[in-house]
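Same chain as my last thread, 170 residues:
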Amino acid sequence: MARRYDSRTTTFSPEGRLYQVEYAVEAINHAGAAIGIRTTTGIILATEKRLLSKLLENSVTEKLHRIDSHIMAASAGVNADAEILVNAARLLCQRHKFNYGQSIPVEVLVQNIADQKQGYTQFGGLRPYGVSFIFAGWDSENGFQLYQSDPSGNYVGWQAAAIGANSQTA
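reply #2:
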């Protein structure tokens, strides 16, 4: 029954679910874990380095990304999708700094990236991004901030968050 509703991202099942988004969430749940913890004096981001096979050559796959001088991100899911969104986030930071002469607020950046992710669930012919992020940053108005975004485009601020494999137990 599900096969009729999972070939396009804009087709809802009778239960009101978008199966393509659920498949993207499953890709994240099979990826290496990442956690973020916000304290009054800073933020801790940590990721799990997974060895997929002993036959694969050891290569560095970055799960921690420096977005700007005041924002970092940890990713879980499809690395290619993460790199696309990280580059888009870096571009947003530079455009904001050029236009306004100051660093972009953390929530503004997270909202823009979440909007881009949500757009890919709305239009036909595009698959949702199979990546989830934990954004950590600091700005002068709100201090230290920690946000989690998912493939559907939702984002939430947290004291502590975990994404990836075994994120529920973390």
